[in-house]
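Quick note —
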Amino acid sequence: MIQHTCEIQVRYAETDQMQFAHHSNYIIWFEHGRIQLLKNLGISYKDLEDGGYLMPVLEVHSRFIKYAVFDEILQLKTIMRDFPTAKQKFEYEIYNQKQELICTGSSLHSFINKEKKAIKPPKELREKLKPFFK
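Predicted structure written out below.
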């Protein structure tokens, strides 16, 4: 298993009339967490795409427990529990400033090439992840 935690600051534009972070932003935050997890491993999402590897979303789920508000600093934990195959699941936990869990979620992705054919994850990614999945 591998995990990475980063901060998200709720921007004013991300809030709704009730001044809560709008639910659609959580999916964008999940994406940020995935990119940061890979970046922390030394893998650039852009370099993956430039190398012909794409990771479209197959499923996304979220469960909202509490709300986030403007200017709040959130902790976003992104988790990979399984070694990547043709598909990869990411899990997410978002905590507020009081360290209360406010949202959980997951997304399922496939690895495809530019011709939209399913492929194995890149060798570089598999090599960097091996130590975390013994």
